[in-house]
Automatic annotation (TrEMBL):
Gene3D superfamilies for the chain: MetI-like
GO cellular component term, pick one: plasma membrane
PROSITE patterns given in the database record: ABC_TM1
Protein name: ABC transporter permease subunit
Transmembrane regions: 20-45, 86-110, 122-146, 166-195, 216-241, 272-293
Family named by the database record: Belongs to the binding-protein-dependent transport system permease family. CysTW subfamily.
Keyword line: Cell membrane, Membrane, Transmembrane, Transmembrane helix, Transport
Major location category of this protein: membrane
Length: 305
C-alpha cells in the first residue's frame, strides 16, 4: 500500500474518530459524573454527597462505597408531585411554544425562500441579527415591554384598544412570548434550508391542473418541508424544556418548570444527588425526540435512494 493511501486511510479514520472523542469528553464523561452523583446520598460536607466509584480508600473502600449505591433519589422524583408536575409543565410549555414558533416561523421562512436571490442574504442576516446581542439582555428587554407600565400597555392605551393595563408579565403568556422570540431563528433557518431547495414549478403545475393554493400547500409545499419542520421543532423543543432564564425572568416565582426546579435543588437546597437525578431524567426524556428525528432522517434518506 502506498504512502498516499495510508495517509488517506488515516485521515478518513480521524474524521470519524474526532467527533466521537468530542462526544466522549464533553458529553459522555460529564453525563457519567452526573449519573454517579445521582446514585449517591446527601451529606453536609464539601462536596455535599457521599463519594461512590472512588478508589481514594483503596480497593476495599471502592467496594464499600459501591455498596452505598442507591436509586432513592430517582424514587423520590416519582413520589414527590413537585418534580412530576415540573416535568409535565415543562413539556407542555415547550410543546405549545414550539407549535407557536412553527406557526410564526413558517411564513417567514417561506417568504425568505420565495424572495429574490439578491435579497435572501440580507433577510438571512436579519434573522440571525438578534444573536449579536446578549440573550440575557434581550430577555430583560421584554420585561420593560410586557410590564403593566411597559411599552406594550402604553401603546395599547394610547390607541384606545384597552382601558387598563394588561397583566402579561409573570404569566405563561410572557413565557411563550419569550421562548418564541428567543428561539425563532432556530425554527426559521431549518425551514428556510428545506424550502429554498424546493422546486416551485411543482406548485405551478398543480395550479395549472386546477389545484387550489391551499390544497397545493398541504399536498406539495408542506410535505417537502417536513425535514425542516422536524429539525426546527427539535431545535426549539429540546432547549425550551430545560429553559431557566425565560421562566425565571418573565414567568415569575410561581412558574413551575424543571429548569428552575433543578437550579433550586442545586444552589438553594445544595442537594446535588437529587438535582443530578433530575438532570439525568430530563436528558432521558429529551433522548426520545432525538431518536425520533434520527428515524425520520433515516427514512428520508431511504426514500431519496
Amino acid at each position: 500500500m502506498s504512502m498516499k493511501r495510508v495517509a488517506t486511510a488515516v485521515a478518513s479514520r480521524l474524521v470519524i474518530i474526532i467527533p466521537y472523542l468530542w462526544l466522549l469528553v464533553f458529553f459522555l464523561v460529564p453525563f457519567l459524573i452526573v449519573f454517579k452523583i445521582s446514585l449517591s446520598g446527601t451529606v453536609i460536607a464539601m462536596p455535599p454527597y457521599t463519594p461512590v466509584f472512588s478508589f481514594a480508600d483503596g480497593v476495599s473502600g471502592f467496594f464499600a462505597n459501591l455498596a452505598r449505591l442507591s436509586i432513592d433519589n430517582y424514587l423520590w422524583l416519582v413520589e414527590d408531585a413537585l418534580y412530576v408536575n415540573a416535568y409535565i409543565s415543562s413539556i407542555v410549555i415547550a410543546a405549545v411554544s414550539t407549535a407557536i414558533t412553527m406557526l410564526v416561523g413558517f411564513p417567514i421562512a417561506y417568504g425568505m425562500a420565495r424572495a429574490p436571490a439578491a435579497l435572501r442574504p440580507t433577510l438571512l442576516m436579519l434573522v440571525i441579527l438578534p444573536f449579536w446581542t446578549s440573550f440575557l439582555i434581550r430577555v430583560y428587554a421584554w420585561i420593560g415591554i410586557l410590564k403593566p407600565e411597559g411599552l406594550l400597555n402604553q401603546f395599547l392605551l394610547w390607541l384606545g384598544v384597552i382601558d387598563e393595563p394588561l397583566i402579561i408579565l409573570n404569566t405563561h403568556t410572557a413565557i411563550f412570548i419569550g421562548i418564541v422570540y428567543s428561539y425563532l431563528p432556530f425554527m426559521v433557518l431549518p425551514l428556510y434550508a428545506s424550502l429554498e431547495k424546493m422546486d416551485y414549478s411543482l406548485i405551478e403545475a398543480a395550479q395549472d391542473l386546477g389545484c387550489p393554493p391551499i390544497a397545493a400547500f398541504w399536498k406539495i409545499t408542506f410535505p417537502l418541508a417536513i425535514p425542516g419542520v422536524v429539525a426546527g421543532c427539535l431545535l426549539v423543543f429540546i432547549p425550551a424544556v430545560g429553559e431557566f432564564v425565560i421562566p425565571d425572568l418573565l414567568g415569575g416565582s410561581r412558574t413551575l418548570m424543571i429548569g428552575k426546579t433543578l437550579w433550586s435543588e442545586f444552589f438553594n437546597n445544595r442537594d446535588w444527588p437529587v438535582s443530578s437525578a433530575v438532570a439525568v431524567v430530563l436528558l432521558l426524556i429529551l433522548v426520545v425526540p432525538i431518536m425520533y428525528f434520527q428515524q425520520v432522517q433515516a427514512r428520508a434518506q431511504e426514500q431519496d435512494r
